[in-house]
């Protein structure tokens, strides 16, 4: 019962603001923009929002939160953590690629700004973490290298938040999305402070089989 409730909340949390944004953007832009807006821009923004939420979930599942530990076995949390990391990484990558293609088609050039640079930095850090998780055996990473990559991945969430706020098209323009981002950032800070107090960077064994 508890598992179903927690899972349901986790699914609805991003879908409600995403649906509100999709409905608003349809009413606002349907008469003005053409095929590429719906083929690239809308999916790109959707992937960005969902990827942001999945990154937060992944962070939560790795943080040993007592409320989650009382509902889900630790092994299940770690398995879901890895899965969400891969899915979220692909979504964020698609977000960046789709927006890049949309800029080229709609503007005839790639607009390069500071906020987009932040997005590129976050994507680079996230890809490193995903590759480390996906190919941990073939790469034969040392425990020090593996931990270093994952510690750097802690920067992805706040960087993406600043990236989204500065660009502002979706986050600042639509209250449900804006409040989702604010609530998740506040929760991220609380969890991170708790982990820092608990000395989260003490040596821990590297997972032997990320696919298990």
For the structure shown, list the relevant keywords:
77% helix, Four Helix Bundle (Hemerythrin (Met), subunit A), 9 helices
Strand content: under 5%
Structural class, from helix and strand content? Answer: mainly alpha
Rg from Cα = 18 Å
Main sheet record: none
First-to-last CA distance: 25 Å
Shape: globular
Low-confidence stretches: none
Short description:
The protein has 212 residues and is mostly helical. The protein has 9 helices and no strands.
Q: Which helices and strands appear, and what pairs or packs with what?
A:
Blueprint: H1 2-29, H2 35-61, H3 66-69, H4 74-107, H5 114-134, H6 136-139, H7 143-152, H8 156-167, H9 175-197
What would you say this structure looks like, in words?
- The structure is a single chain.
- This protein starts with a helix and ends in a 15-residue tail after the last helix.
- It has one domain: Four Helix Bundle (Hemerythrin (Met), subunit A) (Up-down Bundle), CATH 1.20.120.
- It has helices at 2-29, 35-61, 66-69, 74-107, 114-134, 136-139, 143-152, 156-167, 175-197.
- By secondary structure, the protein is mainly alpha-helical.
């Amino acid at each position: 019962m508890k598992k179903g409730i927690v899972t349901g909340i986790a699914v609805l949390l991003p879908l409600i603001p995403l649906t509100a944004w999709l409905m608003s953007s349809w009413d606002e832009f349907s008469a003005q923009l053409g095929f590429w807006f719906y083929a690239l821009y809308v999916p790109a923004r959707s992937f960005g929002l969902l990827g942001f939420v999945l990154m937060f979930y992944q962070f939560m599942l790795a943080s040993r939160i007592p409320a989650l530990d009382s509902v889900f076995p630790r092994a299940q949390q770690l398995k879901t953590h890895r899965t969400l990391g891969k899915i979220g990484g692909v979504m964020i990558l698609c977000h960046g690629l789709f927006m890049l293609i949309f800029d080229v088609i709609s503007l005839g050039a790639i607009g390069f700004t500071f906020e987009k640079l932040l997005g590129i930095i976050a994507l680079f850090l996230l890809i490193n973490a995903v590759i480390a998780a996906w190919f941990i055996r073939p790469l034969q990473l040392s425990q020090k290298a593996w931990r270093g990559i994952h510690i750097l991945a802690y920067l992805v969430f706040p960087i993406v938040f600043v990236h989204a706020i500065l660009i502002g098209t979706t986050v600042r323009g639509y209250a449900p999305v804006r409040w989702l981002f604010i609530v998740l950032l506040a929760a991220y800070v609380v969890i991170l402070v708790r982990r820092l107090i608990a000395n989260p960077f003490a040596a821990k064994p590297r997972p032997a089989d990320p696919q298990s």
